[in-house]
Amino acid sequence: MRIRRLLSLFFSLALLLAPLRLLAQSQQQQVELAREYLSKGDLEKAENLFSKLIDDQRLFHVVYPDYLKTLLAQRNYKEAEKLVKRTMKRSSNSLTYAVDLGIVYQESGDKAAAEKHYDKLIGQLSQGEIIGVASIFMQHNLLDYAEKTYLKGRELSKNPLEYNRPLIALYTHRQKNEPLIQEVLKLLQENEQELGYVQNMLQNSLREDKDFDVLEKELLSKVQQEPDKLAYSELLIWLYTQRKDFYSALLQARSVDKRTRSGGTRVMELGAISAKNKDYEGAIEAYEYMVKEYPDGPYYFMARQRLINAREEQVENTFPVDLNKIQSLIAEYEALLSEVGRNANSVEVLPHMASLYAFHLDEKDKAIRLLQEAIDMPRANPNLVAECKLTLGDIHLLNGEPWESTLLYSQVEKTHKETSIGHEAKLRNARLNYYKGDFELAQAHLDILKLATSREIANDAMELSLLITDNTGLDTSTVAMEEYAAIELLVFQNKLEEAHTRLDAMLQKFPGHSLTDEIYFKKASLYERMGNFEQAIANLDKIVSNPQVDILSDDALFRMAIIYEENLKDTEKAKQLYNDLLVKHQGSIFVAEARKRFRNLRGDNL
Q1: DSSP line for 242-259
Q2: Quick one: DSSP state of residue 567?
Q3: 3-state SS of the chain: helix, strand, coil percent to 5?
Q4: Is 36 left (phi over 0), alpha (psi -120 to 50) or beta?
Q5: Among 12, 59, 124, 558, which is 20 to 30 Å from 323 by CA?
Q6: Whole-angstrom Cα distance, residue 287 to residue 310?
Q7: pTM to 2 decimals?
Q8: Are 559 and 540 in contact (CB under 8 A)?
Q9: Residue 448 in this model has a pLDDT that exceeds 90
Q10: SS (HEC) of 303-322
């Protein structure tokens, strides 16, 4: 009997609930239909349906956002205002809807009413409502009011760091750099461990020189006021590095190191960065500091070696190369080897000496012996051995023995697959095929290297590939390209006079050829290496002044400016040329360096 009664009750309830389920299903279908009308722009039908559904308390929160959106789209601002105000009265949490009321005023064109409403809303907030309201403002992209909300919360809390991170994120997003700088410095003032976070946020936001200037001014003031807060000094070093002002970064790093006696790690890092960016004076000064300050430190040998390496780079990039200085460098390397011995730890010195002998003093036999010594050294680093084999291949190419060269390059390719050294070996094989005029095989290597993980190798591969395709693709004859490639081999072999003669012959033999700008650029490079800077300028000017030449015109303009600045010491002319590049070639890869040099010549950093 009990079971029968329970079954009877169950069926009765089912019969009672069935209409309710059907009603709910019908209402849901109406909501979906209204939304479909809204999405298709049939606003009258959408408004008609939403206006009926909004009265159902169970559907209110589902329907409200779309109904308000429909009314605003219809420009029915009076009804939208009524809807929001009615909703605010019946809701326990009216803050969301209070923001909506401001949006209605704003959409209706009454900006003053919207501003007054938002300011009143923010002025009445309690501490617990700050984050919620700021989030609502951000959802509606009302970022000025989100900022005001956080600042109101800070005022209420009487804590100058309250909402610091949300404000930093907001200022970074909006690139409001002056308040961002103030906020990150407050954070560092409180916690120096936040340095990495601060650097990331600044890197995401700072773009213009004026912003870096503001940060520099603030940091210099902070460093003077609180010299014991190392985070300020570290941030200043970071700033100078971002601006590629490595010398200023070094001065700051050295100052910090002298205060802390921390072993010179940052100075060593900056020496390496300076050398990589061809700031040889900065690198030399960094390593000289390390040698002097830490003669018993763990970096001493490395600093000694890198000091000579930096001097070597400087000598090799100062034209014409002074052979007496080359001899002095070799003597310095010999002295270092005498001090520490010839072993696996010092073997890196040998290929440097070999290159100096082979490429500057034409003593190839000595160079080969040094490289072979390095290759045969017990426990030598395999990567260093591979680099020695590449240099040995280059020397065989100097000797006119390309088959020996390709054998060594190929060995390194095979033993160091998918590494930067293996890619470098493939690039040298590609160049060798290019020199021989086998452009198809060269391109096969270059097509692979254009995808290399090393940006430098990929860029070099792309540059050589473009040179070949630009000057062979439209002309079934490759005679001119073969002649130019053969001249490039002469340049590699330091046969500069012969290369000059053949370049001049090319200009006569192939007038108007697409290689003309390359020929003038190569001639300028050779004159520069020989110390004839006026002739270098004259050849570069033939590229810059030719309206038909576009590919190398920014390269030529930048190179002219460098020569005027560094070799001819004509700063006014250099400044003019840097400015010309900034105006005429805004997409050039040289823009950042040209701007930095222009500002230095103008005296901005004095």
Answers
A1: HTT-HHHHHHHHHHHHHH
A2: I
A3: 80, 0, 20
A4: alpha
A5: 558
A6: 9
A7: 0.81
A8: yes
A9: yes
A10: HHHHHHHHHHHHHHCCCCCC
Both structure tokens of 596: 């930095």
Q: Rounded to whole angstroms, how far apart are CA atoms 151 and 20?
A: 50
Confidence band, pLDDT 50/70/90 cuts, at residue 16: very low
Q: Token pair of 334, please?
A: 């010999």
d(CA 523, CA 520): 5
Cβ-Cβ contacts under 8 Å for 75 (sequence gap 6 or more): 108
Residue with tokens 């349906």: 49
Asked if 593 contacts 599 with a C-beta cutoff of 8 angstroms, the reply is no
Secondary structure, 3-state, 186-238: HHHHHCHHHHHHHHHHHHHHCCCHHHHHHHHHHHHHHHHHCCCCHHHHHHHHH
CB 500 within 8 A of CB 526: yes
Report how far residue 421's alpha carbon sits from residue 415's, in angstroms, rounded to the nearest whole number: 10
Measured CA to CA, the distance from residue 242 to residue 245 in angstroms comes to 8
Q: Which two tokens stand for residue 541?
A: 């000017």
Residue 44 tokens read as 């009258």
Neighbours of 67 (CB within 10 A): 24
E strands in 401-552: none
264 and 290 Cβ atoms separated by less than 8 Å: yes
Amino acid occupying residue 24: A
Total number of residues shown for the chain: 606
Token pair in block for residue 241 = 């590095």
CA dist., res. 322 & res. 318, Å (int): 8
Q: How confident is the model at residue 473 (pLDDT cuts 50, 70, 90)?
A: low
66 contacts 50 by C-beta, under 8 angstroms: yes
